[in-house]
Amino acid sequence: MSDILTALTTLLAPGTFLIILVSSALGIVLGAIPGLSGALGVALLLPLTFGMPPEIGLAMLVSIWVGGVSGGMVGSILLGIPGAPSSIATTFDGYPMTRNGQAVKALGAAIVASFIGTFLSILIAMVASPLMARAALLLGPWEYFGLGICAISLVAALSREKVFHGLAAAAIGLMLATVGFAPIDGSPRFTFGFVQLSSGFDLIPVMLGLFAIKQIVQDFGRGEQQVPKIDVKDIKGFGVTMREYRDNAWNITRSFLIGLWIGFLPGMGAALSNMVAYAQAKSASKHPEQFGKGCVDGVFASETSNNAAVGGALIPMIALGIPGDGTTAILLGGLMIHGIQAGPLLFTNNAEVVYALFLTALIASVVVLALQFFGMRLFPAILKVPYHFLYPAIVALAFIGVFVANASPFNFALILGFAGLGLVMDKVGLPTSPFILAFILGPMLELNLRRGITYTDEGLLPFVTRPISGLLLAFAVLSIAWPYLKPLFRRTAR
Fold first, then answer.
1. For the chain, what is the largest distance between any 2 Cα atoms, rounded to a whole number of angstroms?
2. What's the rounded Cα separation, in Å, for the pair 467 and 148?
3. Number of separate domains in the chain
4. How many CA atoms does the CB half-sphere of 262 hold within 13 Å?
5. Which structural domain, as residue segments, surrounds residue 263?
6. Is the pTM of this model over 0.85?
7. Quick one: which H or E segment has residue 189?
8. What is the DSSP letter of 330?
9. CA-wise closest residue to 204 among 309, 310, 92, 82
């Protein structure tokens, strides 16, 4: 208890709290700009923490991270362009709500869901970190492979009457994920002599090409769009009614648990959790036909889960020294810079640093809630900018974003290429969500598949004979077959 009080006293000191406030605001801005993210802010500011005390340096980095994850929903909702991979699913209903004149309501739902996901997941991480980390250790490559296949099948099954279109899109994503050096043996594949493709396609040009440039080309082709009218004067609170909160109580709870679970599995993270939670919300909904047309349930699901992954990702980093995602890998580097070794002995040797990290995330979540509450009525002002001014600015930010990612002009060609691919996919009816999820999970799936095959002499058999992996694969098959089996069960019931 004394360690918690010591850490809290340090963090609430005026200078440190100002750092948390400014860093949270910077994270929101970075998260909202397509191509940038809180993770980029963490990486850029990591050198500044060298001369700081560990508690203050980590406070800066964690605050940017929390603000960035939550800020990603601004671009997703207002422009239909996810600020980060963790907000991809937010575009599915957030942007249609903006088109329907409900931008403030969508922002309010996202802000509340983000706060719930972050705050509660950090509390759980503080209490249950060692126990949940031990559970992750029980999973091998077979279970991780099954989990990835299950996630892709759930998202592909969202297509309902076009399940095979979803599977085809996922297959294209998996195929493109094989470009670059192969895991384990390191042999180059499908690089066609381009050194820039040695590490595969970077996620940022893929995401911005599919969601930003493609969207702008489509809107430009339709002509000048009428700006939706948004009246913020009559909006009370967060713009969401108590009935909508009550109706989404189980949706929020389920999405929170999905985000927490996927977050603490090393190598997964918010980019996966928001898609899976959205898929589950649509599958369990009494009105699935409303999803994709401006349903607030989808916003609640996506934003609760991706922010719950924040606390989940901290669990393996703190308890095992294994980063849950890319950002926690940078935070782990920040600990090592200060001579702090993450792992089972961290609570014993540096308890005050651990609690400072957790408490920073809690304080930052409250700060982000306040900043976004007062800013949500100003954010829609972006929509008042004429599109012939807004579109060039978005294109410029997109190209700046892909260049900042790795300073390679080759990404300019990639962003245009994937924009073209997105237009072709839309033309033939292939959904983008299974594609992007399969692309993100492709390297993890291949690595765990090859590991699972080489760890035993039984080949592929352990993937179906091990209880958890077999159950996950069976659930994946069922989710694909269910749209076809459901009518048969209804006829039998009659």
1. 72
2. 16
3. 1
4. 30
5. 2-493
6. no
7. strand 188-189
8. H
9. 82
